[in-house]
Design brief:
single chain; 221 residues; alpha+beta; 4-stranded antiparallel β-sheet; two-stranded antiparallel ribbon; 5 helices; 6 strands; 39% helix
Amino acid sequence: MSTTKPLKTLGEDVWRSKMEKVSGELFVLTYGSIVTQLVRDFNQDYAKVNEHLEKMGYNIGTRLIEEFLAKSQMGRCRDFRETGEAIAKVGFKMFLNLVPTVANLSADGRSFSLVFDENPLAEFVELPDDAKRPAGTVVVAPSSSSATGGAAATAGGSAGAAATPLWFSNVLCGVVRGCLEMMQLQVEAYWVSDVLHGDDINEMRVTLIKVLEDEVPAGED
C-alpha cells in the first residue's frame, strides 16, 4: 500500500478535505423511496428486490472505485484483511462518513465481516412483518452466480415472515462487489444480520471467490 498514513487517518482526511457533502437526510429518504418503489414494482417479491438493489450497487461500485483511488492515492493491499480495513476505514468513511469494524476473519484469510454500529440507510425504516427474516433461520451464502444478498434457510419460522427477507441495504453489498471486481477481486457480499430484522448488529459478510486475471475484451487483441 503506497500511503504512509494510518487508514483511519487517511479516511478522515479525504472525507474532510476532498469529498462533496450532501444532506444525509435527503440521501436516506431518496434511497428509501427507491426501495419502496421496487417493492411495488416487483409485487413484494423480496428476492427480486434484493437482486435489483445489489445490481444497482454493483454499477455504482464500478464507478466509485475511480474516485476512491484518485482521492485516497492508495495502492494495492497486501492481503484480503487489509482490503477489508481499507474498505471500512477509507471507503465507507469517504462516501458515507461511517467506519464499520472488520471482524470474524476466516482461518484461510479469504472472508471477513463488516460490522456496522449504525446504518444511515435504515435510519428511518421499519420493515413490515412479511419482509422480515423468519425467527430461527440461518442466513447462508448465495451462490457465486446469484446476487440476492443471502438466502434465509427456514428452520421453524413465524407466520407472515418472508422465506426470502428484504435486505433493505443490499445496495451496499453491490457497491463492495463492484469496487473489488474493478480491482480484480471477485467476491460475494451479503448480509447475515440486520437490526431491521431484530438482530443486535448489522453484519455484512465478504468472501473472496477468486483473483481475476487481466482479460482482453471480446473482439480485441
